[in-house]
Amino acid sequence: MWRWRARGSFSRMLHNGPDTLEELVERHVVKGGKNVSSAGLTTSRREALALYREILRTTRLFTWTNEHGVPWRDLLRDSTRLEFEQARYETDPEVIARLLVVGRDAVQAAIEKFSVKAEELIKKETAPNSNPRPDRWD
């Protein structure tokens, strides 16, 4: 999404989606028996693709393997693909909006937990050793 500025430069809009659950539902719920416009469906599709891409970008952080030697990144990507395929033919706008909100919340929670844990590990590695002589007990 590029917009032309008066000075002749381009600026990219970073966020053009709804900010709250109410706005998301409002955008996708059919009111008064009106037909759903193709723009509404396109918006849902665009938001779903954006969420899918965000999940794939987030899975890059999970580089370690599980007990079977399979990288968590691959397991998370397979799970994401499966869930998106299961919801592929969903037509109810309220269900679609709920799936999008829950998906975004899950990604945000995963990123926050990951960053907190990474900070803890960094602090633990850089913290001075409380017992400088491990061969002696205090």
From TrEMBL:
One of its GO terms (cellular component) is mitochondrial matrix. It comes from the Eukaryota. It holds the Pfam family Complex1_LYR. GO terms for biological process: mitochondrial respiratory chain complex I assembly; mitochondrial respiratory chain complex III assembly. Residues 46-107 form the Complex 1 LYR protein domain. This is Complex 1 LYR protein domain-containing protein. The gene is LOC112291129.
